[in-house]
Structure formats: C-alpha cells, structure tokens
C-alpha cells in the first residue's frame, strides 16, 4: 500500500504543472498519462479520498478507454463505493483489454467467490495461477484455497493452501486460512500448529482467537481455552467473538 502511494508521489513530483490538467504537456505519451492518472486514482483510493480517486480514474479512462489497469482500478473503487454490478463490468472490461492480466483475475476471482459464485471465481483464479508470467502464484493458490473453503471443498482447499505456504511459510493470512480449513477437517493438532505460527506474527484478530478457543476445546486443553479466551476478552472486549468465547467457557465450566 505504502509503496504504491510513494510511487505515485514520485511521479507527481516529476511534473512541473498541475497533475489533473496535463493537456498541454508534450513530454508524456498517452499511455504514460493513463498510467499516471491510474496510479493517482489508486493512491487516493488507498487514502480514502474516494471523490478524488473517481476523478482521476474517470480521466484515465477518458484518455484510455480500453486500458486494463485503469478498468481494474475503477473496479476496486466501485467495490469500495458498494456498486457491485459496476465493479463486475470494469473487471470484465479489464480482462477483455488484457486477458493476460493475472492481477485483475486474482481480484475478480476473489470478488466472485465472495458473492457465492465459487465456480466462476475459481475459474478466474485458476487462469491466473496457470499464467506462466505470474511470479506470485502463491496468491492465486491462497485465494483458491479461500474460495474452496467457502464452497466446502476442504481437501482441495488444504492442498492449495499448502502450496501457498511452501512459497510463503510466514504469511499470516495463509496460516490463518490453513488453520480454519484444518479445524473444519477435524485436524486439530495441525490447526494448533498453524495458529501458533500465525500468532507469532503478532496482532491476532478476533476470529483467529475464537478459532483457537474452539480448537483447544476440541483438543481438551482447558488451560489454552482459558488463555485464548482471556486474550480475546482483553484485546477485543466488545467484539461478538469475545462474547461467544465467554459463553463457550461459561458453558464448559457449568457442565
């Protein structure tokens, strides 16, 4: 995120005039101008300046109506604005403009999976995974694993997450998802191991702590149940996960 913003700012500083009014510039080609305004739009999006992001991305698409990266960025903005149908339209136009854009296929595939369109999502993610120029295949493997977990294909989900972990053994998101899938498969010792590695990264989430509570209950470790429930209560006292953990602990003690 920060690298993207810094890159955009470096480009801004290289200009002598107003960024949003570069019509008189003789030094930038049209593709360069499209790229510039796309980067600016993404930077504003990351900063939460959605109106400015929309202005920049609309201008980028005016300059390059078939630019894949500009449509990808606009899809991300439309999602942020809650315009799901428009986001899909821009994702699809991005892929039509550049079928080899595995980055947009990764994002589009995850978007489809989140909507419950698992087969479509996995198809996009698989295409991205199989792209010979994809230098970060572990991202595709991870997202396929997430989608297959959502659709109940747990063994396949585990296989893809294992491949992602071989490439990125310290990735927090992949470790958490591997723990969640292992729990659902009844492999509670494996889930414990993944969670312990996840917690080594710091900043545990409410969901990860609640998963640890449930997993340790299955393993019969009362002390660890109490430990994770306490950590959840102290770190996220008002969360629904803390309330659920409290009920689980109270129920166990009452029994």
Structure write-up:
The chain has a domain at 1-15 and 29-99: Serine Threonine Protein Phosphatase 5, Tetratricopeptide repeat, CATH 1.25.40.10. The chain has 14 helices and no strands. 76% of the residues lie in helices and 0% in strands. With 255 residues, the chain is mainly α. It has helices spanning 2-13, 30-47, 50-63, 68-80, 84-97, 102-114, 118-130, 137-150, 154-167, 172-184, 188-199, 206-219, 222-235, 240-254. The longest helix has 18 residues, at 30-47.
Keywords:
Serine Threonine Protein Phosphatase 5, Tetratricopeptide repeat, mainly alpha, elongated, 255 residues
Protein topology:
Elements (H helix, E strand, L loop, with lengths): L1 H12 L16 H18 L2 H14 L4 H13 L3 H14 L4 H13 L3 H13 L6 H14 L3 H14 L4 H13 L3 H12 L6 H14 L2 H14 L4 H15 L1
Percent of residues in helices comes to over 70%
Q: Beta fraction of the residues?
A: under 5%
The CATH homologous superfamily of the domain at 1-15 and 29-99 corresponds to Tetratricopeptide repeat domain
What's the level 1 CATH class of the domain at 1-15 and 29-99? Mainly Alpha
- Determine the N-to-C terminus distance: 48 Å
Based on Cα principal axes, name the global outline.
elongated
* Strand and helix order: HHHHHHHHHHHHHH
Helix count from the secondary structure assignment: 14
Poorly predicted ranges (pLDDT <50, ≥5 residues)? 1-21
Assembly form of the protein: single chain
pLDDT averaged over residues = 90
The CATH architecture name of the domain at 1-15 and 29-99 reads: Alpha Horseshoe
